[in-house]
Amino acid sequence: MAHFARINKNNFVEQVIVVNNEVLIDENGIEQEAIGAQFCADLFGGQWVQTSYNKNFRGLFAGSGMIYDPVTDEFMSPPDTE
């Protein structure tokens, strides 16, 4: 299964969902993140970025309230607000 995070305009993660890997397969049988992200956007709207439950890419596994840094292409814990 693939996991995708919805990112708001301030790069905060709003939601994480699971998508069947078959959704990501292109005409050559290769998984493509862009196909999965578009699938999520078509269903729910917004911007979607794939996240790795096993932390194989993009740093931490995304969770609601976390931050996505498009410069480093990683998910991070939110800053302390105290």
Structure description:
- The relative contact order is 0.24.
- The longest helix has 12 residues, at 33-44.
- This protein is α+β, with helices and mostly antiparallel strands.
- Strand 4 and strand 5 form a beta hairpin.
- The mean pLDDT is 94.
- The chain has one domain.
- It contains one helix and five strands, in the order E-E-H-E-E-E.
- A three-stranded antiparallel sheet has the order 2-1-3, covered by helices on one side. It has a two-stranded antiparallel sheet with strand order 4-5.
Helix/strand layout:
Elements: E1 2-7, E2 13-19, H1 33-44, E3 47-51, E4 67-69, E5 74-76
Antiparallel strand pairs: 1-2, 1-3, 4-5
Notable features of this structure?
single chain, about 80 residues, alpha+beta, 3-stranded antiparallel sheet, two-stranded antiparallel sheet, 1 helix
